[in-house]
Amino acid sequence: MMNSRLSPYTVMSDASLAFAASANTVSPAAPAARAAIAKGTAAFKRSNRALFFGGFSTFSLLYCIQPLFPLLSQQFHLTPAQSSWSLSVSSGLLAISLVLLSAVSDRVGRKPLMVASMFSAALLTVLSAFAQDYAQLLALRAALGIALGGMPAVAMAYLGEEIEGPSLGLSMGLYIAGSAFGGMSGRLIAAMLSDFLSWRWALGVLGVAGLLAAAEFWRSLPASKNFVPSTRGWQALPHAVQQHFSDRGLPWLFCLAFLLMGCFVSLYNYIGYRLLTAPFGLRQSTVGLLAFLYLIGIFSSVWAGRLVDRLGRRGVLWIMLSIMLSGILLTLFDSLPLIVIGMALATFGFFASHSIASSWVSRRARAPQALASAFYLLFYYLGSSLIGSASGMMWGFDGWTGVVAMLGVCLGGGVLIALKLRHLQPLGAREAAG
Fold first, then answer.
1. How many CA within 13 A on the CB side of residue 303?
2. What stretch(es) of the chain map to CATH 1.20.1250.20?
3. Which of 208, 286, 331, 369 could serve as 342's disulfide partner, Cβ 3.0–4.6 Å?
4. Domain Major facilitator superfamily (MFS) profile: where (predicted)?
5. Share of the chain above pLDDT 70, in %
């Protein structure tokens, strides 16, 4: 069961959902005395430093391939849809492995699995730089997705178990900052290095950086003191699945996660193809600068949370989705400033919508609440994989117009879901702010 000390801290990001996914097993009662890590201690500083490196490494290695799609298309004579498989296969297998490996961590421990995950993912990224053909690259990226499943969920579980309650929000925030910084910098570094050297150098350098981050993580992270092995978690799974999918709101939120992440990843997957060719003809490194727009997203998730506190989720979610949709439509214009503005609006709307939807799942779900968040995250990454690949097919059919048409239909469906959720009845006092 989820530790009761976590309930005041609802963190709205990929990492927070991964934390919830990791708690889907039932553990024996913890010892009465818990030696929690307190703020200001050496152990607190070491754990925060380690988890920042962990978040950075995980998401930089996952998303560094995204700006390389046009170069992979040239190198291996691929269509945009085929090139996008190098990310889709990783995110799809990550969606599955994060649930399975979080259960494994409940038996073998947090730190050993995280260390193995980080070293494995970094080594696989280094090996990817030497792939002789695209099939080898896909196989290595698939293995990377599986390996990364042992990091995000387990990292947040570690924080929940080891950090004292009053300091948990700060530790989670630092981990999430590392995750967001990794997602941004992985894209940016890969774009820069591939422009001036090659895509192989980009993957090699980031893989070596991942190995160094893994070494620092292993050196700095204090060993678990409050971990209690569990073997009973899967017994209650069938009933919990039935309970969550029979809820009137949760399945719609799962669908929304699928559409949101699928559209957002597709936008960044294929915008490079549009900007590298006429009438723009930008350099690879220039296109990579779009990664800085992630800073807007970090702001919007916090801003949306504050707005929800005043107006409620029902009155805000559909507006944020509409902002994302309007931003995507702006990219249809053959004007670079309008495209950048459109990307910024879409990024703003995505992070805001994701933060609202993910927190709504946590607030709406009955026990076991963690499993509901695990399903949200599962659909989230499956959307990245499936819609991301399907959008590439639309590029082959009608270029950027085809991509935007598909994303417009998907987000239009998302807006309809948000409008439907406006009439969702709350679950008593727990949903009073909903």
1. 12
2. 10-23+37-222, 246-429
3. 331
4. 43-426
5. 77
